[in-house]
Amino acid sequence: MAVYTQVTAEEINEFIASYDVGEVVSFKGIAEGSENTNYYLQTTQASFILTLFEARVNPDDLPFYMGLMDHLNHKDIVCATPVRDRSGRNLTTLCGRPAALITFLQGMAINKPQPDHCRQLGGELARMHLAAADFGMSRENDLSVSGWEKLVADCEDGADRCAPGLCGTLRQELSFLKANWPDDLPRGIIHADLFPDNVFFLEGKLSGLIDYYFACTDFLAYDIAVCMNSWCFEADGSFNVTKSTQLLKGYNEVRQLDERELAALPTLCRGAALRFLLTRLYDWLNRVEGAMVQVKDPTEYLTKLKFHQGVKNASAYGLDI
Amino acid sequence: MAVYTQVTAEEINEFIASYDVGEVVSFKGIAEGSENTNYYLQTTQASFILTLFEARVNPDDLPFYMGLMDHLNHKDIVCATPVRDRSGRNLTTLCGRPAALITFLQGMAINKPQPDHCRQLGGELARMHLAAADFGMSRENDLSVSGWEKLVADCEDGADRCAPGLCGTLRQELSFLKANWPDDLPRGIIHADLFPDNVFFLEGKLSGLIDYYFACTDFLAYDIAVCMNSWCFEADGSFNVTKSTQLLKGYNEVRQLDERELAALPTLCRGAALRFLLTRLYDWLNRVEGAMVQVKDPTEYLTKLKFHQGVKNASAYGLDI
Q1: 10 Å Cβ neighbour count for A245?
Q2: 20 to 30 Å CA-CA from A54: which of A219, A294, B165, B173?
Q3: Can you list the domains of chain B with their CATH numbers?
């Protein structure tokens, strides 16, 4: 939510000259994306987002992200897509940072998704999974079980400062997930961070997905588990089974979930809850006073984790499909 | 440089329904303006800036600012202008804050202004002064001599923490300015904060002025003094007399400065330097750890003040007009 790198008018004019997109007419830093610097850029031809990738992004992963967005776009999945410069590169450098000029996606993120939004989300997620099936690259999910193990080790000393007893909860949950994490589910490219901020709607219709910078290769159903956590809980921490039912229905209409995936859903949801609990806890414990970043509340995901711990089987998610 | 108030998609859709500007297609918080929250807003008809006025702005002053922008726009001074809603109001409420929908001004602020930019700035500033002459409202400059006196009192205890000896410098300068501040110069509406961030250029031509939220009634030549401080010093603190000459020439071509104004220029420049030194010092002394605001360096304006203290007469500003 911040502009980490200031780009001057002189720098942006020089940068844009290497693209065939017209002249810059407006250029404003925007408060979007928690990891990167983003600018809204308007030229005489069109609008764009200029993204500068900051230190937390591994530059080696960028060709995967760019290639994926490009691939999905060619498969008619509406998403922001990197534009190629005159020499054909979709990833260049600006102010010493990797930079990409991305097409501007109309629409707005919805703060309080309704069941119909969840249904549309499910359908688009499934379409994305199918469209990515023949994408030629892969990227390991460094925020799956072994990543959680590292994060638990990094956070266990401070965890109880965040919530009493949290350290024990983390250790027990990690141990449960290590013993029970599935290994035989359908795999493919997943978005892995499809929070409501990353899904745009226009006049009530889903208009596109953004922010593919956690995309990786993992169980397809894990992507549903991430969405279940971020779309189907109310602000008071209660689980909205109508929303999860619609999410699963929307998905299933496009790509049928198999029995193993359904059976694994409660475990996948616990994993997804732990993943966001751990990264938020890490950021909370390592927050820098004065940094222009809002630290999100880790305990929101502790509440969600506890809900999933109580789930006996996937029918608790309203599954009737 | 921050989004202080988060407006949801639901709230902006409801807000925009009271204007005749089409449907919202995009809405993004932008890092512009240090006092207010600004959003870039694109509708099916046009682009806008949505401004939410935060606590530091006195709501009683808003009709003056809105009226001024409206007045200037009707006089062909290109500036962002408030749009009226269906019931004719150019100032409404959103998320409990005064809010205005402002036309979107094309162009970009220039980081390193060149002499030609300064000349264009001077001309536009003079045109703005002339165009505002028949604006019916007025607003006292609360950041002139009596305002500085208050700020010196608020800051003197902490000043030396910022720069050794600063407290004494502030007291002496205030006492000099109280004794020497002019009282008989041509008055009118001034912008009072016309830093390079607030002036847009498009393909090298000045395309408009923004951020009228310090505008007030004061000596017209004081506006030049503010620009002299913010446009004519180099990053190393040196004064660029070529730029100041062009600024004054550009102004004088449109509105001839009289002898009293020229004679007062060194004093006005000292006043303008003290004004920004004091507000920056106040913000520096009262900075909140963790606040998402970048505190600007007060000593930049101490260097500028010292330069003007050494100026004997306006010819030091390259005045040959």
Answers
A1: 20
A2: A219
A3: 9-105 (3.30.200.20), 109-317 (3.90.1200.10)
Indicate the range of A8-22, A33-47, A161-175, B77-91 predicted with least confidence.
Answer: A33-47
- For testing contact with chain A, the best of B34, B38, B108, B201 (most A CBs within 10 A): B108
- Which pLDDT band holds residue A282 (cuts at 50, 70, 90)? very high
Q: What is the pLDDT of residues A175-191, one digit of tens each?
A: 999 999 999 999 999 99
Alpha-carbon span B150 to B139, nearest angstrom: 19
Q: Which of A9, A29, A201 sits opposite B30 (nearest CB)?
A: A29
Q: How far is Cα A219 from Cα A221, in angstroms, rounded to an integer?
A: 5
Nearest Cα to A135, choosing from A79, A199, A197? Answer: A79
* B116: nearest Cα among B240, B214, B236, B279: B240
Question: Which conformational region is residue B182 in: left (phi greater than 0), alpha (psi within -120 to 50 degrees), or beta?
Answer: beta
pTM of the model: 0.86
Chain A environment of B32 (Cβ under 8 Å): 28-29
**Cβ–Cβ gap B25/A109 under 8 Å:** no
Contact list in B for residue A27 (CB cut-off 8 A) is 108
Q: pLDDT-derived band of residue B146, with 50, 70 and 90 as boundaries?
A: very high
Q: Output the CA torsion sign for A285, A287, A289, A295.
A: negative
Q: How many CB pairs under 8 A join A and B?
A: 92
pLDDT of residue B87 exceeding 70 = yes
Q: How many CA atoms lie within 13 A of B34 on its CB side?
A: 12
Q: Which residue of A has its CA nearest to B44?
A: A106
Contacts with B25 from chain A: Cβ below 8 Å: 106-107, 202
The pLDDT > 70 percentage for chain A reads 97
CA distances from B114 to A241, B48, B237 (A): 62, 29, 16
Q: Which amino acid is at A14?
A: E
Residue A3 at interface with chain B, using a CB cutoff of 8 Å: yes
**Pick from B9, B31, B106: CB nearest A110:** B9
Express each pLDDT in B186-237 by its tens digit.
999 999 999 999 999 999 999 999 999 999 999 999 999 999 999 999 999 9
Q: Strand, helix or coil at B100?
A: strand
**pLDDT tens profile A111-128:** 899 999 999 999 999 999
ipTM of the complex: 0.81
